[in-house]
Structure formats: C-alpha cells, structure tokens
Design a protein that fits this description.
The protein has four helices and three strands; from the N terminus they run H-E-E-H-H-E-H. The chain is of the alpha+beta class and 103 residues long. The protein has a single domain, classed as 2-Layer Sandwich (GMP Synthetase, Chain A, domain 3). The chain has a three-stranded mixed β-sheet with strand order 1-2-3. Strand 1 and strand 2 form a beta hairpin. Helix 1 crosses helix 3. The longest helix is centred in the N-terminal third of the chain and has 22 residues. The protein is globular, with a radius of gyration of 16 Å.
C-alpha cells in the first residue's frame, strides 16, 4: 500500500511538471514534491518558484486539474494545495552564514 502511494506521488509529480510547463510556458516553476493522502482525495504540491507564481497557480487550479486528467488516470482527481517550497531558501541562508563565519 505504501509503495503504491509513493508511485502515485511520483506520477503526479511528473504529470504536474508537464502540466505547469503547458499552462505557464514562460514561468520557471519546478515541482519539488507531491504528497497525496491515502484516500487520494487531497494532496499537497511543493513548487520551487516565486510567490507570484504560486498565486497564479492557485488562480488556475481548475485549468491545471483539467490538464492533469489527461496525464493521470485515477478514479478521483485529488484536491491539490500548492505551496512554495522554501527549503532551498533555508539552504541559501545556511551558506551565507558559513561565509560570514569564515570572515
């Protein structure tokens, strides 16, 4: 069961990457992680990009869901929550701290 959910997470991640490229052709939005609940009715998607990009994604959730149906064959299309992946910002802060400490 756990492996099945992990496979679905990966397939949604790949499909969402394709969909975001199609819906937002000029934007630099990268799907870093997808986590679906076991019921497959809700999910959370982490996106590396800008806060404006996340706002645009949230405005076009319906279009994204429609496009996603073409790539993923499931009984239910989960309700997805898109959030900014700020883990890389923490890493950048750590690198700056190391540089400052070396001086």
């Amino acid at each position: 069961m756990k492996r099945d959910i992990e496979q679905k997470n990966q397939s949604y991640k790949k499909a969402l990457g394709k969909v975001l490229l199609k819906v937002f052709p000029g934007e630099s939005l990268i799907v870093t992680d997808v986590l679906l609940d076991p019921s497959m009715k809700h999910g959370k998607v982490w996106i590396k990009g800008s806060t404006e990009g996340i706002e645009q994604i949230n405005k076009k959730k319906g279009d994204i869901s429609q496009e996603l149906k073409r790539y993923v064959n499931t009984r239910y299309m989960p309700s997805l929550e898109f959030v900014l992946d700020d883990r890389y910002l923490d890493h950048i802060d750590e690198l700056f701290s190391e540089v400052i400490d070396e001086k």
